[in-house]
Predict the structure.
Amino acid sequence: MSVGKDAANWDAVQIASGDHVAVALRDLSGRVRVRQGSEIVEITLSDAIPLGHKFALVDLPAGSEIRKYGAPIGRATQPIPAGAHVHTHNLVSQRAAQKAGNG
Amino acid sequence: MAENTFLGFPRGSGRAGTRNHLLILGINGLVVAAAGRIAAALPGSKFVATPYGRGQFGPDKECHFRQLVGIGANANNGAVLIVGVDRKSADEVADGIAARSSALVEAVTLDDTHEDALALAALGIRAGSRLAREISQERRQPVPVSELYVGVECGHSDASSGLATNPLSGALVDRLVDAGGTAVIGETIEWLGAEHALRHCGAKPQMGEAIVRAVAAREAAVTAIGVDLLGNNPGAENIRGGLSTIEEKSLGAVAKAGSRPVSGLLPFAGPPERTGLYLMDGPSFSPESMTGFVASGTQMILFTTGPGNSYCSLLAPTIKISANPQAHEHVSNQLDFDARGVFEAHETLDAAADRLFDEMIGFASGTLTWGEAVGEGAECFTRIGASL
């Protein structure tokens, strides 16, 4: 298959502008390149990030809303530094919490 | 071809067709075989027949009638031959189609042949052959892209769907809506947890409430039989794939709707009143969901998949899109658009969306999809209540 000269020039994508997380396009660790709109930004990962998983692009305080696809996907349960894995261990659904709260 | 046009079949005041079908439409389960005989004798005709049509009442009856009329009124039909049992119900469907479309409509019924099923087939073949020759005189002409109404569906999703193909179809929907066209997504239960995103993009507060109610109604129906949709959702496989919350999973699914404001919430199989982005309150199984789109008037369907999914609409050309590299190795023949570049990081979403838009114009202008080339396609009726 023909590919451009900048083939495989990024490792992860920020899906919508303003998203707090980027998604890994392959298994990643160390210094990676993230496509953010028309720009490519470098960031150092503090965890190994498997394909399809996500990491923080900025420092996220505990309790803060986390956005992906341009919308909230839940809240941080602890402070999450930029470059760290964001998943079920530090991110909780607000929809499920709301439902549990309502009984 | 001028920019922002496609070659379609103009239909007077309605949307242009991307195809010019002769549709043989069986409207009652008693004449499925008779309608099938007629279609088999008319090569190139399209055959849709409901197995129902009697003993229905209330909202289920209305929903079934809306599907029959909507399927007939789809702009891809140049002519519709209704095959029925009694003259009265055949005329009701014919009148419903005529009110919404400029297609030639005729009806043949068992009433006309003193219940003789073979005589009905002969009558239908004569009428159908006349209609086929009549619509063959129509020619494609440049028509504005704003006349396109596209349904967006997903089936067999994987990591490449939420990452690449759903945002890609979202980018395509944004382009279509900006060009004055219309798009619809359905599968209500997939909005569970993403209501906030859909609600905030709604222009009117009442519509936001209607979206929340539509999801709650389906959630309640499932909860009533003891299934908790939120308890194990996202599931273990989703979590292994990187999805953390129900919001994230659903946002990945509704990403295929793009980012433009929602113009309205349609009932299942209901037509949109204007242009723009619509949501349809409907079932999540693709055959049912897509027939809801076709009955609503879509002349094209975009279908995003991960490993591949062969199902196509019969009446609306269905463009299969995958970004999964293995799918392109195993079933490349069965896929109409290659979005691997977005997943493998050598094509931006915008570049792929521009390319997909051009390909869609080609398919709208007559290029065959895989499903059309091999005759893969069906329409499937949805019931929302029990029979008498």
Notes: Chain B has 14 helices and 14 strands.
